């Protein structure tokens, strides 16, 4: 998965709309800033928009806490993310649930919404709707990424403090995790073919030497 564009609207310290165009950055870049400036919010937002939950140790935290405290209570809060896989462009948008008071002093609750699209290009503002039903969209995204939220958190994000845990895992545990990220099955088959070819050549060499 390659991130293309991330838009945050009233998320964490990002009041109103803020967009990160990853295509304008170099292949390697650093997310830096002072404490509380929103570094973790960027990574949390990517996880939230893909899976509807937060990564790592914060997976049980209510996602509505992503909503900024500085916007009007009736304003939306959402994450809009465009990413590419195998030259295909996808867009997913999740709007956070929120509660506000109407003019009649009654409490109104807006539910979380999810929209998942296939795009023609980065300038495609409409796209082909894959699903706007949360459960269906969640399944489609998971099937596309081939990672659940725990695997995504450990393999792609690897939050602070969890790298040591990864290093302490057994070889089998690390192999299972990394196989989600790299096509090791192909390499395993290639390695097996090389071993078989090596054995055949050794036999032929032995026959030649005997002659």
Describe the structure.
The protein is an alpha+beta fold. It contains six helices and eight strands; from the N terminus they run ββαββββββααααα. The chain has helices spanning 39-51, 134-145, 149-157, 163-168, 171-181, 184-210; strands at 2-11, 14-21, 78-85, 88-95, 98-101, 107-110, 113-119, 128-131. The strands form two sheets. The chain has a six-stranded antiparallel sheet with strand order 2-1-3-4-7-8, with helices on one face. β5 and β6 form a beta hairpin. α1 (39-51) runs antiparallel to α3 (149-157) and α3 (149-157) crosses α5.
Question: In which range does the helix fraction lie?
Answer: 25-40%
Number of helices: 6
Low-confidence stretches: none
Number of E-state strands: 8
Distance between the termini: 56 Å
> H/E order of the elements?
EEHEEEEEEHHHHH
Q: Determine Rg (CA atoms, Å).
A: 23 Å
Strand content: 25-35%
- Strand line-up across the major sheet: 2-1-3-4-7-8
Largest sheet: 6 strands, antiparallel
Mean pLDDT rating: 88
Overall form: elongated
Which structural category fits the helices and strands? alpha+beta
Describe the structure using short key phrases.
two-stranded antiparallel sheet, single chain, alpha+beta, 211 residues
Could you outline the blueprint of secondary structure elements for this entry?
Elements: E1 2-11, E2 14-21, H1 39-51, E3 78-85, E4 88-95, E5 98-101, E6 107-110, E7 113-119, E8 128-131, H2 134-145, H3 149-157, H4 163-168, H5 171-181, H6 184-210
Antiparallel strand pairs: 1-2, 1-3, 3-4, 4-7, 5-6, 7-8
Helix pairs in contact: 1-3, 3-5
